[in-house]
Design brief:
The complex is a heterotetramer, with two copies of chain A (about 650 residues) and two copies of chain B (about 290 residues). Chain A is of the alpha/beta class and about 650 residues long. Chain A has 19 helices and 27 strands. In chain A, the strands form six sheets. Chain A has a seven-stranded mixed sheet with strand order 9-8-10-11-13-12-21, sandwiched between helices. In chain A, strands 2-3-1-4-5-6 form a six-stranded mixed sheet, sandwiched between helices. A five-stranded mixed sheet of chain A has the order 18-20-19-22-23, sandwiched between helices. In chain B, strands 2-1-3-4-6-5-8-7 form an eight-stranded mixed sheet, sandwiched between helices. Classes of the chains: A alpha/beta (about 650), B alpha/beta (about 290). Chains A and C meet through strand 3, helix 10, helix 11, helix 14 and helix 17 of A and strand 3, helix 10, helix 11, helix 14 and helix 17 of C. The complex binds thiamine diphosphate (TPP) (2 copies), iron/sulfur cluster (2 copies) and magnesium ion (2 copies).
Chain lengths: ~650, ~290, ~650, ~290
């Protein structure tokens, strides 16, 4: 086995992220590739956290769709995830507190860890530390190098001092030794190159890209999943010579960034959908006063406050429609973590060359999941293009006109502090010099030409941007279309399809505005069958594509339940579509069970769980009838009825 | 510190004539801002005048200086960004009561507690002028406007008191009828290290027929002329800020030396941001990446 | 002549609107049809105001494209507009202050009015009153009934008392008598039905529609061109029992309206593009908590602060993209003043039936121009449909679930104050009962079904909305497509085209979201040649149409200089397109003259004006060389060079 | 006025358990709000609890009453709309310091000068909790947070002083460590006609390790127990509002009877808007149209 996925499940506050991090860094330092995704909730303590860490000898581009090892930190986690563990896999848990009560697939190793016994010698330990024991056991099961983990733990707890390090090492060791005696390794065949690769999130890549591009001003208001950019920036501001300003709201955030951009400093800000909504008015201002600014919009589950810790690609309409009137804006959707770095650098250059707002649209998945990158993908030496910047002006070439009408639409830009180029940048309409034409000097001719001057810049910018290209066989029977963060997972789905004998290729979009309509149309016309895959409920990109090209995709695969796509889900739906059976919106048995769990959690007691499920017909719509049974005894306690079409939960009938 | 060379008011003569109504109080403010700039001797290219939207906010278009005529209510935020990007600039904000105390009040209060080195001149005509005469946050109770035909029922904002309890370190009030006095207050604010508020009675001759020149002339008196008024005592400043009737004080209510936001910002040790080289130091960058290994 | 257009030109503060109003009301009371448009600037005094009043025996649906009579209140106005007066027309002005120095077309009557002499008997009069004298003269020239004007003036100045009325009457009379002696009537052939019709603006129609629909809460923050709704509401609040709340900003405005809607009161708010940008976040909230609210977005020239007193249809992208995520919203673009009333009523019903935000998108032209309406088009008896409103709830039909999953997607709505239906409406994602599923109860199945429940409502709502239909011959050689306020002007253009032998028809859109994609496609497929006509720079509706149908219009006619379309402009461009010569973006000689005027006003002296214009080729681009001459002497003072392609103003060369 | 029947706290038992961290100050506030509701005897269906977004803003989900869990910073605006639509309802706003004094400060100040009959309970933990620990507008100077790793440099907002100079007619401060005392303050605010602010020290045990229960227990004292403190005198209230050190006052700072916004609204003469018939009176409508002839 040259690829393995480990799942760690527990509650917020259980500190499982630290455990996962140690595991991931160990693998990374051994030269393996790592991709991790943490599915968490908008709660500080409690609830359910589901962290998946995927290790591979080769590059892995999603958290995948398999589960080989599970570390369960509470009973609920065993029930939810143990059944997913693949044959040959293993389930680890603290046997002092938990037991394996869930149905397992064939030859899945059950590994109860007697934490109390194993840690007795350490006296009272914090609950978090049991994770370290499990980690130790896992190292053995996965044939990973304990010494490397030791070094990782040493670095991780460096600031906590020698004792803490010692204790953690000992705990891991205890788990390792316990496993060696009693458990069978999963049979991983690694060849450790020990090439060290940074383990990076998209938000870290954005921040590093900004630093490399010479960003000197970052303003923000905390908002998941953009906050980690603020945290990184704040932590590194002093060393990087960046002013990091947390503001009172997003209105201040974006207007400050625009002010800084006007004054000549490379400025960036980031937020999520709700904060971006508040920024829209000012984005139009940046377009009007032709101030460069970079805005990162990290999408999360919407609408409104929505599901703040879940991922979605639902804000495309918003960035396209941000602010009133027509003005030029550039919208870029980075396609993976590496690309977050590249796109940030690109964004700053485009913003200054064309003197306009550039929006980087990411999502929770891309911004928050960490993965290993090739070391050279994060580099200090990047191109820095500031466009037509006036360093000095002597009357010779006439008076300076900030908004001079040029055939490119780009006017030489002078910064405050420069003599002879004094001007006012107004959000009111103005002439070449910046004099208002919104009041006494209203002038239809000047208005028409300056409006055209601004819009012209987009056509020019488009030439700077690489056109979309097909990946995979040109004569494929199906073309998978996507945008932004889904590039990797669609790639994997494509490989699965190819493996199962379906010739598929991929057309993925990074540059959303301006749009390569001609090039895209050319590719699309040649496509036999197109399926647009995106993480929202209405197919926003498919709509955008049609708006820009007139081309209508044949089918769409949409996901909007908060969880990211997995390769197999895509591959299966593609097959279904090709077999002429597109997915129905009915509630599946698995979903009915989920809905039953929800009712149990909100209305009944924790020691119940869903049992048998069967379809019956009810009044109005077909019904899933779900037995509710006792967790341990499995004894039936009552019945729940869930609508197959609507998903409605009908009356709960307890047994008398 | 270099000795200051005062500059004549013509230095700041704008490109076009103001389009304010004849008699508008804002003419006086425009003059005072120019005089103040001359007093502190800031060159036009080192002065940035930032405004929002409103009659008053048209001011940057009428003075020879860099400027941003930004969005309604956002001037303070835009100005903060400019100042932080280039601390070598003198940044003055000019706007209206609706712009600053209505839609913009959040930025106003938070800028004061930050004590950024900005000078904020509010042309307070107690009305929404440009939108043709609705009630503003400083419109007096009972006053009839287009939006309050039965008389305004909301308590007016007290900008002086708000500034005092929000940490502004220079709090003053001027009157368009007294441009030279106002110019001194504005110049004082520009010299002051930290956030300076100069609230100005700037009558709207077209839409505010209550708070007129005569109305103010009858009432205003100068704090400087009060025998024992002490502008370093925040409590007596607060006392005075509540005075609103037959006598209304103008002048400097309060001044205090406090560290500015800029003082506390390590990034400025290397000088203004705008003068820093863009490319990142490779060794620094390497260390940033190493944290991720 | 059974139709005439009068232009009144002057500066802000000249009170010409009053004069125009008296004229319009006179005609209206005589049973004539009236349409007026006032082109003004964002300045309180001074500048240039250009008011056109069009009178017709038959219904007139735009300010048209002709000028028969001009009242000029300053020299600038004579220069600008006298040359536009048609043969047989007349130019009126105060000969004490002004003179006719502009080139006139053949047999245009020059009517200098010796105001001083005519008003001597009245002692010192305010300047405004000279307008009344001119009005009097105009009454004679247009064969209007002086007595009716007398009654209008009496009503207008009723609140100012008898003397003022008397004086105005006498002044009008003086003008009338002066004209009778010396001027020739224009030869209007009216037949006065004396049927009284209200003279109404779109904003008044919105307000009246809201009142008829039972709106009880109106919140607003002043913003041109929406402010007049606030002014009307404030003035009538007490009588209508409406709470009118001016707020601190648009964030408060929309959130208050949503709060009122949640509490069960019909609530409306209005703003323009910039204010709407600030409202977007909350519009998503209304979609999420399923609260009814009506929002009027009155478009003006953008982007950003733009040209606040000018018209444009540039905010379509914004209303379509308002707020993050997918949620249901209804967008309606009223097609004329009458329709503003109808649409307001409709909006309140749809908002409550489908429990979502409804956006009425208007523009400055539609909202601010007054026209005569048939009396019955404003009526008290309108349908009021509140949808599924729970009046009382007894446990019988189980516990109340605010967001019950139904097959329609609409859940019965209970209001605070009702027993047994207590619930929380959350902007976080929630289940049927309103319990959050964004935190500990995160649930992918529940999330999927509630997202679908919300979106379902749009499909249902679409069935409520009439589909678009073709107006004019089905087999037309060209189909003119438009949306919102341009219905009337496109109608007139169509008549002009038909008159000149071109078979054209019209496809006009009122319901923008949800969209009748099937019906529209069916019509469009049958169209021979399509031209989309809209008031913005990028063709936002053509893009929307393509996004919804995949159909690409053949050509577009776009206007974005701030002035509304005129029938002839459209007809001419249609002809040009049909003759294969679409409009170039080059600066026309007339525009070059305008640009020259702008330079003169901003840099030279008021006593100069543009003279001869000729095209030459310059460095980089072709050049318009414009002589600048002295206003009176016509003597050349220098030369200005304007780029033909860019519109750039190159160095001004004074003569030595 | 009808005699009040007090209701037991169970009346308001919410549908689910709070998901706050064990020990979070907000538990105390939830309890106090329920107790207060019981004291004034408002039925769950006549009570509306409105919040923004934040840990504290999850409160409406944990109490049996109508509620809107609105947007971050917008609770006061939404609540204002609800109250104006149905004056028969008791409307309580519950939120956080970031929600109310940061992004929402504009609505906060303008609601106070309107003196709407609302009760606003702010769970002031001097941190952004839900977003995992950044500085809030009330975070003390020098405190290190995720967004201020070198220590906060901005002067904290003084909500009590702001309220006093902005026209709030009931201004109080509670402490989660004293739920019954807090309950009395909240009940007082609900009984009070006009805008009532109850700022509450509600420690965030997870992200604020400076302003902890012990930190407050050591410092707070009750104004009610001050021998000659007079809560009708705005000046001494202001005096007290600045007290922040070894001794920090809690209790009622100030109360004053002023006409409410509702009192001045003619539309309410016919009763709550929500009870008015929708169809317009034809003769009234006719007269409206006639104005246009
Ligand atoms: C977001 C937004 N809302 C509303 C407006 C419309 N508007 C322009 S100026 C103004 C108020 C001006 O009042 P003030 O700030 O007091 O300036 P004044 O005209 O009185 O000098 C308003 C509401 C706007 N431009 N932007
Ligand atoms: C417009 C917007 N910006 C940012 C956020 C993210 N956000 C959610 S809660 C919160 C701050 C919470 O702090 P506070 O109001 O003090 O509540 P606490 O969690 O401390 O109780 C922020 C910034 C948001 N939801 N909406
Ligand atoms: S309307 Fe008022 S504020 Fe505006 S210019 Fe005229 S006088 Fe000044
Ligand atoms: S993070 Fe702080 S505020 Fe939030 S629930 Fe935990 S303790 Fe309470
Ligand atoms: Mg004002
Ligand atoms: Mg807080």
């Amino acid at each position: 086995m040259r690829e393995v996925t480990i799942g760690i499940a527990g509650a917020a506050g259980d500190g499982l992220d630290k455990t996962g991090d140690a595991l991931a860094k160990t693998a990374a330092r051994l030269g393996l590739f790592v991709y991790a995704y943490n599915s968490y909730q908008s709660v500080i303590r409690g609830g359910h956290i589901w962290l998946r860490v995927r290790l591979g000898q080769e590059k892995v581009t999603s958290h995948g769709d398999r589960l080989h090892a599970l570390i369960a930190l509470n009973q609920d986690s065993i029930e939810r995830h143990a059944p997913e563990v693949e044959p040959g896999g293993v389930v680890l848990f603290n046997s002092d507190k938990l037991r394996s009560n869930a149905p397992l697939r064939e030859n899945v190793q059950v590994a109860p860890l007697p934490i109390g016994e194993l840690t007795r010698s350490f006296g009272r330990i914090q609950p978090v530390m049991q994770n370290t024991v499990a980690l130790g056991a896992l190292l053995f099961l996965l044939d990973l190098d304990f010494e490397v983990t030791a070094s990782v733990l040493a670095d991780t707890f460096a600031h906590k001092g020698k004792d803490v390090i010692e204790q953690n090492l000992a705990l891991a060791r205890a788990g390792y030794d316990y496993a060696r005696g009693r458990l069978a390794p999963l049979g991983c065949q690694w060849s450790f190159t020990r090439k060290r690769r940074p383990f990076v999130t998209g938000n870290e890549a954005f921040a590093l890209g900004a630093v490399a591009a010479g960003c000197k001003f970052y303003s923000a208001y905390p908002m998941t999943p953009a906050s980690s950019i603020l945290h990184w920036m704040a932590a590194h501001a002093e060393r990087c010579g960046i002013v990091v300003k947390q503001c009172e709201d997003e209105l201040a955030v974006v207007n400050m960034a625009i002010g800084a951009g006007f004054a000549g400093v490379r400025a960036m800000c980031a937020t999520s959908g709700g904060g971006f909504a508040l920024m829209t008015e000012a984005i139009g201002q940046a377009g009007m006063i032709e101030a460069p600014v970079v805005i990162v919009e990290v999408q999360r589950g919407g609408p409104s406050t929505g599901i703040p810790t879940k991922t979605e690609q639902g804000d495309l309409n918003q960035v396209l429609g941000a602010s009133q009137g027509d003005f030029p804006r550039i919208i870029i959707a980075p396609v993976d973590t590496r690309d977050c770095f590249e796109s940030a650098v690109e964004a700053f250059n485009l913003a200054e060359k064309y003197q306009l707002p550039v929006i980087l649209i990411s999502d929770l998945l891309l911004s928050e999941h960490p993965e290993t990158l090739e070391p050279d993908s994060l580099r200090a030496a990047v191109p820095i293009e500031r466009g037509e910047l006036v360093s000095e002006w002597n009357g010779e070439n006439g008076p300076y006109k900030r908004f001079a009408f040029t055939s490119s639409g780009v006017s030489p830009r002078a910064l405050p502090g420069t003599p002879n180029t004094v001007h006012v940048a107004a959000s009111d309409e103005h002439d070449e010099e910046g004099i208002l034409i919104s009041d006494v000097f209203t002038n239809t001719a000047v208005r028409r030409k300056i409006a055209e001057k601004r819009m012209k810049k987009l056509a020019l910018a488009l030439r700077d941007l690489p056109a979309p290209r097909l990946e995979g066989p040109a004569d494929a029977e199906v073309t998978l279309i996507g945008w932004g963060s889904t590039h990797g997972v669609i790639q994997e789905a494509l490989q699965q399809l190819t493996a199962s004998g379906i010739r598929a290729n991929q057309l993925h979009f990074k540059y959303l505005l301006p749009f390569h309509s001609r090039e895209a149309s050319a590719l699309l016309e040649r496509a036999k069958r197109t399926i647009c895959i995106e993480g929202n409920a209405s197919g926003q990109f498919a709509r955008h594509l049609r708006a820009e090209t007139g081309y209508s995709v044949h089918d769409r695969i949409l996901k909007y339940d908060g969880e990211p796509f997995e390769p197999r889900q895509i591959a299966e739906q593609v097959r279904a579509i090709l077999n002429g059976q597109p997915r129905s919106l009915d509630v599946t048995p698995a979903e009915a069970r989920e809905i039953a769990y929800h009712y149990i959690r909100t209305h009944l007691s924790e020691d119940l769980r869903p049992g048998q499920i069967e379809k019956t017909n009810g009044s109005g719509e077909a019904i899933w009838r779900i037995e509710i049974v006792h967790r341990d005894s499995g004894q039936k306690q009552g019945e729940l009825r869930v609508g197959v079409e609507t998903g409605a939960t009908y009356a709960w009938q307890p047994l008398r | 510190m270099a000795t200051i060379v005062e500059l004549p008011i013509e230095t700041y003569a704008g490109p076009v004539e103001p389009d304010w109504c004849p008699g508008c109080g804002d003419f006086g403010v425009l003059k005072a801002v120019k005089m103040a700039a001359g007093k502190v001797g800031v060159a036009p290219e080192d002065l940035v005048v930032v405004s929002g939207i409103g009659c008053s906010s048209n001011l940057p278009g009428f003075i020879h200086a860099y400027g941003v005529h930004s969005l309604h209510g956002r001037a303070v935020a835009v100005a903060s960004g400019i100042k932080l990007a280039n601390t070598a600039l003198t940044v003055v904000i000019t706007g209206g009561d609706g712009d600053g105390y209505g839609i913009g009040i959040g930025h106003f209060i938070h800028a004061m507690r930050r004590n950024l080195d900005l000078t904020y001149v509010v042309m307070n005509n107690q009305i929404y002028g440009l939108t043709t005469g609705q009630a503003s946050p400083t419109t007096m109770k009972e006053m009839r406007t287009k939006s309050t035909p039965r008389g305004n029922v909301e308590l007016p904002i007290n900008p002086i008191a708000l500034a005092l309890v929000s940490g502004a370190t220079y709090v003053a009030r001027g009157f368009s009828g007294e441009p030279t006095h106002m110019a001194d207050l504005i110049a004082g604010g520009m010299r002051h290290k930290g956030f300076a508020l100069i609230d100005v009675f700037s009558p709207c001759v077209t839409y505010n027929h209550l708070n007129t020149y005569p109305w103010f002339k009858k009432r205003v008196y100068k704090l400087e002329e009060e025998p024992d008024y002490n502008p370093t005592d925040v409590r007596s400043a607060l006392e005075k800020s509540f005075e609103w009737g037959d006598r209304i004080p103008i002048g400097l209510f309060y001044q205090d030396e406090q560290p500015t936001y800029e003082d506390s910002e390590p990034a400025f040790r290397r000088g203004p941001l705008v003068r820093q080289p863009l490319p990142v130091d490779p060794t620094l960058f390497k260390s940033l990446v190493e944290e991720l290994l």
